[in-house]
Amino acid sequence: MKLVLNTNVQQTPKQVWAGFDQSLFEKLAPPFPRIRLLRFDGSTKGCTVEVELNFILFRQTWQSEITEHGETENEIWFVDQGIQLPFFLKFWRHRHRLLRTETGTQIVDDIEYRTGSLVMDYLMFPLMWAQFAYRGPIYRRAFNK
After folding, report:
1. Model-level pTM?
2. CA 24 → CA 88, 90, 102, distances in Å?
3. CATH number at residue 35
């Protein structure tokens, strides 16, 4: 299943990239499930990010590795690939794109996920959309002048 959300902010891609740190990562965490950060190496190739998801009745570990990172004149990007996922996910790939615009940057969350069942993929879509739509106002607060 594919999910893409765009958020426009007023800073340049380089300024936004400089703000993609542990502090921003923690601010982007949705209210549910609660997240406890176990490891944050950064957002460049080879880095690992690991969190514990608290679903009240049970906890799950999610570990991703940054498998790509690059920069051109008009874009900065990195990809986190799921290594250890919660039981309900079989595949995770999140491409973070910072695209230069006339007025700043378009932050693109380009997500591909699979649960192992097409029906479950569709049922999860509204939840996934909500988790990432939550980021828009946080991005705007962090990166608007």
Report:
1. 0.94
2. 26, 26, 24
3. 3.30.530.20
